[in-house]
Structure formats: structure tokens, C-alpha cells
Amino acid sequence: MSDDSEQTLPRVLIIDDSRMVRASIIRHIRDRFEVREEADGEAGWQTLMVDPTIQAVITDIGMPNLDGYGLLERIRGSRISRINTLPVVVISGDDEPDVRVRAKSAGATDFISKSIGNVELLARLEALTQLARTQRDLEESRAALASASPVDPTSGLATPSYLHYHAAQELSLAQRRHADVSVMVIEIDHFDALVARYGAHVAQLVNRKLSKILATKLRQEDTVAELAPARFAVVSPSTNMDGACAFAMRLRAAFDHIVMTYREERIRIQITIGLAATTPGKVQTVSHLIGVAMERIASGRAAGGNRVIGADGEVTADMIEPPARAPVSIDQILARLRTTGLDANLRKQLPDAIRTLLPLLELIESEIPSGLPLAALARAAETGVNMLQKND
């Protein structure tokens, strides 16, 4: 896979005393898996102890030093979780029922014949490695939740639980301040087809590419989590439907320029985005907003994908007006003001800062009447006039 990612193919350990058998298996799977090989069970066990990147084992039964049954006993009895949970496929020329039963009883995940075709062998290996990876990810996510960590250890994004918790706080705050909150659900188009055509490892690289881009494109106050493979949710405070539409269109356009390659084949990534936003005066939950965004994704998917769907249907570029953009980060502006002072770039952001702060200033004026020049500030935000710029 040609990408800036450091990810590699899943690694499989093949253990068989026949060099020809090992070479045959490697020939079948080398396009989808990295391979290590050993000639007996004892050597295979030592390799498992020192190589934590192995994700599955293919082993023969009859081998010198340590046979397949003994190897299975060691693997399943190991106190190291990454070893005792490994998928182990027994591959044997002896397909007698008692051999199969004994291998299963010893802890074999699967049992296949040495005459198996390469398509079936690949399918079984990919299914087993994907299952093992999912189980590890689930265990790591559970560990993160148990330690009260808001970050998913696999994706580096917020956990879904934290997203719901934090979004509920933002919604409560927005209701008190009469502010907006938007929810964006992003889905990679035709993800199942990617898995079927290129394999699970390539699809995962695409999924991780989207994770990295989201982590760099969002504002500090936004929260993003991976809800499921190929599906992400973003909660944006102080952002109405217009602002969400504008950001979603920019994000979708960014993906139109991304091309990944696999075995000299170009893979284009496209996404469909569903949007939902709070309604003034109406109490709404995070789950409801995500559900609305998911329904809009479904309509975008039915229309062919690569679309942004908002409250009024598909969002197009001509519907986005320049003022309809996400609010700036006041925290970032204040930090820059403290470090660099009021420079030319900061002056250009003042109309956006006014637009972001206006709901709060209106609330302050309603609670504590003090003669704030709200009308003048609103005009400055709309016309782009810099209130602090001195006349020459």
C-alpha cells in the first residue's frame, strides 16, 4: 500500500517440517500477509515469545522436537494474553475425524487440509486475523474505559462513550446559552467493497487515513469518535447547520484529492456525510442527533454516495455562502494575542471572532443590561469591518 502510513500487512507464522509445504503456503498468501516460518514446534514457540507482531499461526501436527499438539498446549496455557488468544490454524495431510477432534480439543481455531485451495485459505486467514484484531481492539477499548481514559487506544480519537458524555454537556450548556451544536456523521463509501476487493488490512489503512485527517482538520473544541469501522461522528459546539454544511463540504472536497495505491492500482476514497443540528427551544439528545445524521447518510448512500446531506437534502457548493463558516476558536485568538499581540493576521479574524461571541454578548446584555453596542458589532461581523483598525 503506497501511503504515508507505517502500517504493514498482518504477519503469520507458518510452522511445518516440510520446506516444500511452507513454500506452497507462502506462495498462496504472500500478497496479503507477511510471513515468518519455522521447521518445528519448538522453534515456532521461541519465535512467538519474541515476536509480538504475529497475528496468526499455521502449524502442522507431526513435527520433530515439539509436535502441533504440544505447541497448542503451550499457546493456550501461556500467561501472555497476546499469545494465548492467537488464532491457530492446524493444517494437516491427515484429515481423519479423530485428528480433527483432538486438534480442536487442544485449542485449534480452525483445521484445514494441505490440499485446500488458495482462495479458501486466504478467506479463512483474513477472517481469523480480522476477528483477533477486533477482539484485541475491544479489550483495549474496555481497558481505556476502565481507566477513565477518554481516548480510544486504537484510533487515537475520543471513545464513543466519551463523545456521548461530552456532547451531552455541550448540549446542556448550549440550551442555557441559546447557542448551537451540530453533529456530523461521516461514512467511507463502499467500505464493504474495499474489504472484498483488497482485503481487510487495506480497508483498515483507509479507515485509519480518515481518522488521521479528522484529527488534524477539526477545531480544538470539536470532539470526534469512531462509532464503527468506516463511520465517525463529530460534535461541534457553537456551530449551526450553515457552518456544519460549509465545513462538511470542505472535508468532502479534501478527500476527493486523496489517492492511495495498492499493487499499482489506484484507490480513491470518497465519503458521505450526514448532518444534524439543534433546534432553538427544543431539547434534544446526542443519540437523537446522531440518529438524524445517520438517516441522512442513508439517503446520501442511496443516491450514490460522495454527498453531504443536511436538513434540506443534498448540500451543494453554490448553497454555501461565505459567511456560513464555522466559528473561530476564541481560546486560540486569546493565546495568539498574549504571545504575538495584535498583528495583521489577527486583525483579519476579528469579524469572525465577533460573530462567534455575539450569542454570548447578547445573553450578557439580556441578563445584565450594560449598553453593549450589539447592533454595531453585528454590522461589523457581517461587513467585515475591523472595529479596531485605526483610520489613517
Give an overview in words.
It is a single chain. By secondary structure, the chain is of the alpha/beta class. It has three domains: 11-135, Rossmann fold, CATH 3.40.50.2300; 160-319, Alpha-Beta Plaits; 330-383, no CATH class. 50% of the residues lie in helices and 17% in strands. It has 15 helices and 13 strands. The strands form three sheets. It has a six-stranded mixed sheet with strand order 7-8-6-11-12-13. Strands 2-1-3-4-5 form a five-stranded parallel sheet, sandwiched between helices. A hairpin with a 2-residue loop joins strand 7 (223-228) and strand 8 (231-237). Helix 2 (41-50) runs parallel beside helix 3 (68-77), helix 8 (191-198) crosses helix 9 (200-217) and helix 14 (350-367) packs antiparallel against helix 15 (374-383). The radius of gyration is 28 Å and the shape is elongated.
